[in-house]
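As noted in the main text, all predictions were made from sequence alone. Below is one such record, for CBF/Mak21 family-domain containing protein.
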Amino acid sequence: MTKQLSLLSDSASASSPAEISRQIRSLLKELPEVRADAARLDALRRLFTQLETDGELSFGTPLPQNAVAVKWQKFLHKSHQTMVRQLCERVQMGRHASIRCLWGVIAGSPTTIRGHANDDKSYKRLNTSLLQEWMNAMIQQETLMDKGMKHMVEAEFLTPFRDVQYYSLGCIVALATAAYGHETTENPRDDDKVEDDDGDEIQSHKERLAQKLLELLMLIPVPASQNEIDHSSQYLFPPPTNISSSNVEAQEEEQNSEKSEEEVSEDEGESSSDDEDSDNDNEDDENDGSTRPSKKQKTEPQFRFVFQRMRTFRREYLRAWLAVLRLPLPITSLKQALLFLPQHVLDYVSHPLRFSDFFMQAYSDHQGVTGVLALDGLFLLITKYDLEYPNFYKQLYKLISSKVLYAKYRTRFFSLLTKCLTRNEMLPAHLVAAFVKRLCRCALCGPVSSVLFVLALVSNLLRKHPECSCLVHRQGSSEMEDLFLPEEDDPVECRALQSSLWELAVLEKHYYPAVGTLAKSIGRPEEDNAPLHVMDDFVSHTYGSLFSQEKKKKTKTALAFQKPESLFTTEDIFAGCLDIARSSSD
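Prediction:
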C-alpha cells in the first residue's frame, strides 16, 4: 500500500490533469488504519508540493483568465483545503505524524508575493493562514502537550526558523483575540446543549484555549539583539536579496492590514520608534567594528523584512503576550506566566510596564504563592523599569503571617523579602520597624528553619538602619505596654516604632540552641562591626537540613576527672560485687 501511494505522488509531474485529479480523489479517501492513513496523507502532501513546485498550484496569486485554468485551480485549492482539514482533525487527536505532515504542507505551500505592475519579480513567504490552522488545531487538543510533543514542536519547527517565530506570534494574537471575543474557529455547539450553565462552559473553554496558547507562546524564542537576527540564516523561506524596496514596503503594508483592530502598540509605537532605531544603529555600528558606517550599512535597514527587524519582533512579542494574558488563565497557567515573565519576557519587549496591570490583578485576585509571584514581578518593574507603585510595601506587609512560615512557597517568599528589604537603603524607619516587629511576632510560633531566617534578616535590618535600634534598647519599665497593633495591615498605622522587640527575649530560651544564640546576638555592640548574615544560607533551611547539620557536628567528649579503679564507683549499688566473686573462687 505504501509503495502504491509513493508511486502515485511521485508520478504527479509526468501525469495529465485528469490523472492528477484521479490521484487526488483517491488519496482524499480516509483509511481506518492509523499508519496507512498517515502514509496516505503524506503521499497527498508530496503530491501537492510537487504541483506547487511545477507551478500548477499557487497561493496568493490572482486566478488566470482562462476558464479551464480557473476551474483547475479551484479544484486544486478545494482539495488542498480538504487535506488540511483532515490533517487538523488528526492533529487535534495528538498524532505526531500528522503534526509533522502538516508542517510539511506549510513548507510546501508558500504564499507568492508579486511586485508592482512594472516589476516582474516575486518572492515566497510563509503561508500564515496554514500556520494559523495548525495552531488552532493544537489548541483544540483535549490534553496538554507532553514533554515529547513540546520538544518536537520547539526543536523541529519553532526554534530553527525566524520567519516561523515572527508569524507564529501574529497567529497567537489572532487566536487569542478571537477567543476573547467568543469568536472561536471551532464548530458551533448544538442548540440543545446551550442551557443555563452555558456561561460556565464558555469560561472553561476560554481557560483551556488560554492554557494551550500560553504553552505555545512560551516555546517561541525571541532574538536578543539585531545582531543576532542579522547573523541568522535559518528561514523556512529565505528572504530574497535582490528585491526592491517598493516590494518590501508593499509586503509590510499587507502585513499591517491583516492585523486585528485591537493594536497593542499603536499608540506607543511612535513614542518608542526613536529609541528602537537608535538601538538598531548602535548594534549596526558594533557589527561593523569601526566608527564610520559604510553606505551599505546605512541602506541595509530599508531592505529588511518585518521578521528581520528587532523592533517588529519585540512589538509582536508584546502583542502576543498581552493578548494571551487578557484571557482567563487557570491557576496553574497563571503561576507559569508569573514565573516566566520576569525571566524571559520583560527584557525582550519594548514596554515592559504594560504588564503592571496583569501583576496587580494577579495579586488582588489570588493569595498564597500566586500573590508572592505577582509581587516579585512588580518589584522588578519598580526597581528596573521605574514603575510607580506606592502601595507595594503595604501589600508585601499583608502577606506576612504565621501561616506563611509553614507554607511550601516560603523559600520564594523569603527571597522576595530579602530583595525588597535589603536592597533598598532608603526605606523609612517606621516601615523597617513594622516589618521587623511583625516578623518577630510571627516567629514565636514558627518552625525552626523559618525562625532562623527571620532572626538573620532582623539582625541585618537593624544594623543597616540604626534608627530602629530603639526597638532593642528602649529605656523604660519592665512592665511596659506593647503599643504595636498586630491586626493592622498598614505598616504606617501599626505603631511598630513605639514598641520593642520583647520577642527576642522569648526566642533566647528556644529549645534549639542556634535560635537562642542568634537571638542573644541581636542588638549587642560587638555585632555592629560583624559582617552581615548571608541570607542565602538561611532561605533554604528545612528540618532535614538542620538534622543533617547536627549529625555532622563533631563534639568534644569530656574526659573523666578521676582515674577509675574498678568497673563501678564506690557509691554505686553494685560496688564490690566482683571482689566478692573473686574471693569465693579463691
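Confidence is low (pLDDT under 50) at residues 183-190, 264-302, 581-586. The beta strands are 111-114, 122-125. These features were considered when defining construct boundaries for the mutagenesis experiments described in Section 2.9.
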